[in-house]
């Protein structure tokens, strides 16, 4: 049995350099710093000179417990422009402005932060924030491509309200999600972005099938596992599209998120995105049935004790459809099977039957129930593969299971080539 916390363990007190670029979103980095320090990380903040015009050094020093400077000329005997990068387990740059991305891509070293980036032997995570036109400019896109090609993780910015009245891509991702991405990168250690170049589609959450304007048929899925899969893939360098069905979680930093409600809406989006995906992971809990008829007004109780009869029709089987009709050569399809077992068969036996029937490459079998898996941070599973391999995963975090799933996906793709 594989332990769910398998993989490279982060140091007991990971050393993080938090680089802060000179954008209005610099104030949000204070929340990221708080999350890092309160979770046990030793953090050195290295702002640019312009960042210090938005948030002063005393704030960074008070929150980190370390002196702060943007210059290479302070504390010279300690050689900070070399030592900070050499000793770090992770460098996070948030916000990473267009100017900072350009300087990093071209190897400039005109302040302490860019010197640190050139001397870092550890993973580097950039969280960009800038105006939409700056993000979409060919120069910025080329700089991002250069950094990614060299092994850096560059998240896509969030879409939303920017400075002033403008909206669009360029907003700094939520600090909570940057923190989650940093944790995922630290779990990987020096393993590097092994999913770089892959386009990944992940579905998450649970579909809801309306009965009337206020009621629906649904399930207990929270989306936690799908979001963990998306975060892990992003931290490993993949381009991620996440289709979320009724999920009340912040968007994973760097993912393109599409929101749906019903099984038919989910199918429509999956069929639209799948042709561009190298890997499709269907972790959403999709309703098997939907009401045959939708009541335009709320269904009310009658004066007698009778209850209305709800007639159901079967929803399309999205997983089987995309597995049997691959949208592109070499595409890998991963499914999830939430099983309870029955009088004759275990949950694993039922899962293995689904593996063959659906035609997927890998199937993650969860034994579920009212107090199992759904909505909980912990999980356990068995990963079964079309070739017969089986990987039991001991109870552990959904983040750890996500890493193991991606490990098995890479192994499967390697064996298939």
From TrEMBL:
Catalytic activity: N-[(R)-4-phosphopantothenoyl]-L-cysteine + H(+) = (R)-4'-phosphopantetheine + CO2; (R)-4'-phosphopantothenate + L-cysteine + CTP = N-[(R)-4-phosphopantothenoyl]-L-cysteine + CMP + diphosphate + H(+)
GO cellular component: phosphopantothenoylcysteine decarboxylase complex
A Pfam family matched in the record: DFP
Region (Phosphopantothenoylcysteine decarboxylase): 1-199
Positions with a binding annotation for CTP: 288, 298, 336, 354
Keyword annotations: Decarboxylase, Flavoprotein, FMN, Ligase, Lyase, Magnesium, Metal-binding, Multifunctional enzyme
Cofactor requirements of the protein: Mg(2+); FMN
One of the protein's GO biological processes: coenzyme A biosynthetic process
Pathway in which the depicted protein is active: Cofactor biosynthesis; coenzyme A biosynthesis; CoA from (R)-pantothenate: step 3/5; Cofactor biosynthesis; coenzyme A biosynthesis; CoA from (R)-pantothenate: step 2/5
Domain DNA/pantothenate metabolism flavoprotein C-terminal residue range list: 195-410
Cofactor annotation remark: Binds 1 FMN per subunit.
Domain of life: Bacteria
Domain (Flavoprotein) ranges: 15-180
Region (Phosphopantothenate--cysteine ligase): 200-417
GO molecular-function terms, A-Z: FMN binding; metal ion binding; phosphopantothenate--cysteine ligase activity; phosphopantothenoylcysteine decarboxylase activity
Catalytic activity, EC: 4.1.1.36, 6.3.2.5
Annotated function: Catalyzes two steps in the biosynthesis of coenzyme A. In the first step cysteine is conjugated to 4'-phosphopantothenate to form 4-phosphopantothenoylcysteine, in the latter compound is decarboxylated to form 4'-phosphopantotheine. Catalyzes two sequential steps in the biosynthesis of coenzyme A. In the first step cysteine is conjugated to 4'-phosphopantothenate to form 4-phosphopantothenoylcysteine. In the second step the latter compound is decarboxylated to form 4'-phosphopantotheine.
Stated family: In the C-terminal section; belongs to the PPC synthetase family. In the N-terminal section; belongs to the HFCD (homo-oligomeric flavin containing Cys decarboxylase) superfamily.
Protein name per UniProt: Coenzyme A biosynthesis bifunctional protein CoaBC
Gene of this entry: coaBC
């Amino acid at each position: 049995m594989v332990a769910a916390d398998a993989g490279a363990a982060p140091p007991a007190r990971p050393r993080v350099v938090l680089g802060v670029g000179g954008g209005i979103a610099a104030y949000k980095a204070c929340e990221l710093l708080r999350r890092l320090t309160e979770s046990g990380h030793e953090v050195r903040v290295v702002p640019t000179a312009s960042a210090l015009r938005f948030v002063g050094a005393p704030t960074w020093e008070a929150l980190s417990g370390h002196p702060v400077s943007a210059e290479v000329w302070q504390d010279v005997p300690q050689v900070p422009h070399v030592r900070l990068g050499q000793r770090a387990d992770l460098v996070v740059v948030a916000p990473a402005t267009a100017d900072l991305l350009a300087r990093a891509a071209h190897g400039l070293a005109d302040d302490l932060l860019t010197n640190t980036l050139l001397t870092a032997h550890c993973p580097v995570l950039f969280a960009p924030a800038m105006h939409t036109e700056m993000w979409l400019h060919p120069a910025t896109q080329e700089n991002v491509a250069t950094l990614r090609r060299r092994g850096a993780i560059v998240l896509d910015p969030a879409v939303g309200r920017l400075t002033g009245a403008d909206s669009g891509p360029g907003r700094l991702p939520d600090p909570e999600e940057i923190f989650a991405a940093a944790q995922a990168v630290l779990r990987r250690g020096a393993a590097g972005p092994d999913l770089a170049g892959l386009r990944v589609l992940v579905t998450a959450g649970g579909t809801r099938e309306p009965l009337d304007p206020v009621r629906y048929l649904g399930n207990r899925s929270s989306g936690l596992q799908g979001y963990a899969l998306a975060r892990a893939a992003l931290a490993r360098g993949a381009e991620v599209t996440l289709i979320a069905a009724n999920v009340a979680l912040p968007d994973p930093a760097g993912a393109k998120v599409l929101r749906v409600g019903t099984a038919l809406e989910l199918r429509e989006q999956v069929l639209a995105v799948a042709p561009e995906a190298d890997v499709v992971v269907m972790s959403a809990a999709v309703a098997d049935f939907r009401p045959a008829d939708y009541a335009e007004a709320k269904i009310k109780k009658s004066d007698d004790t009778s209850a209305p009869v709800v007639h159901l029709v079967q929803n399309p089987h999205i997983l089987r459809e995309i597995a049997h009709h691959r949208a592109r050569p070499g595409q890998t399809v991963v499914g999830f099977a939430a099983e309870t077992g029955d009088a004759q068969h275990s949950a694993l036996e039922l899962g293995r039957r689904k593996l063959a029937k659906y035609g997927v490459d890998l199937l993650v079998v969860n034994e579920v129930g009212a107090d199992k898996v759904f909505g909980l941070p912990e999980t356990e599973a068995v990963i079964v593969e079309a070739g017969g391999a089986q990987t039991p995963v001991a109870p552990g975090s959904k983040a750890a299971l996500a890493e193991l799933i991606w490990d098995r996906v890479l192994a499967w793709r390697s064996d298939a080539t």
